[in-house]
Specification:
The complex is a heterodimer. By secondary structure, chain A is mainly alpha-helical. Helices cover 69% and strands 3% of the residues of chain A. In chain A, helix 3 crosses helix 4 and helix 11 runs antiparallel to helix 13. The longest helix of chain B is centred in the middle third of the chain and has 30 residues. The chains are: A mainly alpha, B mainly alpha.
């Protein structure tokens, strides 16, 4: 039972960044822009979030207040970086995959460059402890309290909140419906008076917000508040893309997919704590490969009837009908 | 007078010939992107340390000429991964998995180099072929997933980058012949497996670059002159139309990815088997759970070369050139990462340079002996071509 608690407590902080970034990817792709730059957006958000923490950590603020403020900084940073993508994809009608790849390449280099010049290191190291031993009241509930409200991070609760907001916006608002229309059939959307360019900017910008926050939450929940230009976000942006496809561009399924992936990853990194699996004597590298292999297996079974937005990746041109 | 008119007509005609040529326009767009990328890099350098900016910038742009041999030495692997990405791109497939295929090829070459006992004369050739096969195995998987199961090749190749990297590191660490655990890296390969050096003093340039360039030319011929190349490009333009015309789209996807993987794998083999005076840069591998950077550099090379095999050769040499310049710029205090920034900006601009390009060509036509009417005609043509 101890192990179950341990696994759940450690899965959630890993699942939340994946969830947020995959939701961001979902907003971007349902508006019709393939966002392969999520990795870069995450890292950009994480870097500025951590930079903010670095500069305010000596002021004696409450760690959770710092986390919330840094989250806002990360969101703004993510938006700014995502504008580079929307400008290229919407205004310049560029190939979105190429643009995304270049944005992914740019940011680790910039981080290394500036960190080496100003901090003489490969990234930012912060000393704030965001870890919550136990949330008052909620943490005392038997079983559930221990699973979800002890030894955790504030990021988990904020992440769930974002999931609910995203689901409502996606399904229950005029905006969500219009956004989806722009990814499925932009010309039809245009013919009923929806501004496709604006909607695509909106979709990519939301992915910038969620991507930036997700990146910062990754650095909080997985890297103890540090950001490093060499390891970056360890491919989490790409994994989030896989989670998004695995979740078939639907918020609820994306949540389950991110839990699935995060659980396998946590399992892989805590084999030595689980006597039953440890005694099997299987090389631990196999477990590290497990999340990726499992994703492939799942994708193989679910992709035949893919629900990818039909117009994704195609620049919208009013005059081409 | 009449003579002069006809001459004028002739020059007009020539200009139109040149500016309407698609090779010219992609070359121009690459140059434009490079120019903007370098300007951006210069601005970053000015912000970082104004005093040395000009010296550093000159080192970046011209420094590579001091080390031509090394430029070619480092260009070899990224040329191969660039050809791999570009070849798949021609078919509309984005092979982001070049890193995994590269690592696989490197492992296969290492394995043959250490474990097989072969005559010296053919050992490196067999090791290279093994590298090709290793990369091919890793490239064919995304192809199969795409063709048979409709899984997006971008996701598959990213997943297999990780799987390949973990697998190779595990296999190497588990092999006591190759791996020296207290040095956390493999032994150095025996010298007989080395690719022959070209014998130019003070440089690491070897036969690999010649082979890579020949492969680039062969790919160009395959793409331009064979039925397979034609089908491949047709599928890239419109998959449904080409299937309607009777081409076997699924089979072609699998073959394309297999070849692309093989090319990346060969890049890995060329990198690991190269003779080098730079310690640790070849002949040995350090399993540190990091995805090979040369695969991602290959994406940059292919995009800058507009996925054209011959263009890729030039862009690989160019990128290697400014990378060498970047290491020289660290002499005056700039971190070598400045080059990665410049490369990323170049790729960013090359993605939408088609629009800038047509504006630029329009500018040339307007101001160099072209009437307004001709210009409009040309614009119409260009629009038609673009469609």
């Amino acid at each position: 039972m101890e192990i179950v608690y341990y696994l759940i407590q450690n899965t959630l902080p890993v699942a939340i960044p994946l969830l947020l970034v995959a939701l961001g990817g979902m907003f971007s792709e349902t508006s019709g822009v393939v966002n392969i730059a999520l990795e870069g957006i995450m890292l950009f958000g994480a870097y500025f979030g951590a930079l903010f923490v670095y500069f305010v950590q000596d002021l004696g603020l409450n760690p959770q207040t710092i986390l919330l403020l840094a989250m806002l900084v990360a969101a703004v940073a993510g938006v700014i970086y995502s504008l580079l993508l929307s400008f290229a994809a919407v205004n310049m009608k560029a190939n979105q995959v190429i643009t995304g790849t270049s944005l992914n390449m740019l940011i680790p280099a910039v981080i290394l460059l500036f960190s080496k010049m100003y901090f003489n290191s490969d990234g930012v190291t912060t000393a704030v402890n965001f870890y919550i031993q136990k949330i008052p009241v909620l943490g005392d509930i038997p079983v559930i309290g221990r699973m979800f409200f002890q030894k955790t991070y504030l990021t988990v609760m904020i992440g769930i909140l974002f999931l609910i907001i995203s689901t409502v916006v996606f399904y229950k608002t005029k905006f969500g419906l219009r956004l989806r229309a722009c990814g499925e059939h932009p010309h039809a959307a245009d013919s009923v008076g929806i501004n496709v360019y604006k909607m695509r900017y909106a979709g990519v910008t939301i992915s910038g917000i969620l991507g930036g926050i997700g990146g910062f939450f990754y650095s909080v929940g997985v890297m103890d508040g540090n950001v490093n230009g060499h390891t970056g976000v360890a491919g989490f942006g790409f994994l989030a893309l896989a989670v998004m496809i695995f979740g078939q561009w639907r918020p609820g399924k994306i949540f389950l997919a991110s839990l699935f992936f995060a659980f396998l990853r946590t399992l892989a990194y805590s084999i030595s704590l689980i006597p039953f699996l440890y005694n099997l004597g299987i090389n631990q590298t196999y477990y590290k490969m497990l999340p990726y292999v499992a994703t492939m297996v799942v994708l193989a079974f679910t992709s035949k009837k893919s629900r990818a937005p039909k117009a994704e990746g195609i620049p919208y041109d009013k005059s081409s009908r | 007078m009449q003579e002069r008119n006809s001459l004028l007509n002739k020059t007009k005609f020539n200009l139109k010939d040149i500016t309407d040529n698609s090779v010219f326009s992609s070359f121009l767009s690459a140059l434009l992107a490079i120019f903007l990328g370098l300007i951006f890099g210069f601005i970053v350098m000015l912000v970082a340390a104004p005093a040395n900016a000009l010296t550093g910038f000159r080192l970046i742009v011209l420094g590579g000429f001091r080390r031509i041999g090394d430029v070619f030495y480092f260009a070899t692997p990224i040329l191969m991964t660039g050809l791999s990405v570009g070849f798949a791109f021609k078919m509309g497939l984005f092979n982001i998995g070049a890193s995994g295929q590269y690592t696989m090829g490197m492992f296969f070459a290492l394995y043959v180099g250490f474990m097989w006992d072969l005559p010296d004369s053919i050992h490196w050739i067999v090791a290279c072929i093994a590298g090709f096969i290793g990369g091919m195995l890793w490239g064919i998987i995304p192809g199969l997933f795409k063709a048979l199961l409709n899984v997006n090749e971008v996701i598959t190749s990213i997943m297999f980058n990780y799987i390949g990297m973990y697998l190779v590191d595990m296999l190497i660490q588990g092999n006591s012949v190759m791996y020296v655990s207290d040095k956390t890296r493999t032994r150095y390969l025996p010298a007989e497996v080395q690719i022959p050096s070209l014998g130019i003093p003070n440089s690491n340039v070897n036969l690999g670059i010649i082979l890579a360039i020949i492969i680039g030319i062969i790919l160009y011929i395959v793409l331009q002159k064979t039925i397979f190349g034609y089908e491949l490009k047709a599928t890239g333009y419109n998959r449904f139309a080409s299937e309607y015309a009777g081409m076997k789209g699924k089979r072609n996807i699998i073959i394309t990815m297999a070849i692309a993987g093989g090319l990346s794998g060969l890049g890995g083999a060329f990198a690991i088997l190269a003779p080098s005076a730079i310690a640790g840069s070849s002949m040995t591998y350090e399993p540190i759970n990091i995805i090979a950077a040369n695969g991602f550099n290959g994406i940059a090379v292919a995009l800058l070369g507009n996925a054209h095999p011959i263009g890729t050769i030039f862009s690989a040499v160019f990128i290697s050139h400014i990378q060498r310049g970047g290491t020289l710029a660290s002499l005056v205090g700039y971190k070598p990462e400045i080059i990665d920034v410049v490369i990323a900006v170049i790729i960013y601009f090359s993605a939408f340079s088609m629009i800038m390009n047509s504006a630029f060509i329009g500018f040339i036509k307007r101001y160099f002996g072209k009437g307004k009417k001709d210009f409009d005609d040309n614009m119409d043509n260009e629009i038609k071509e673009a469609e």
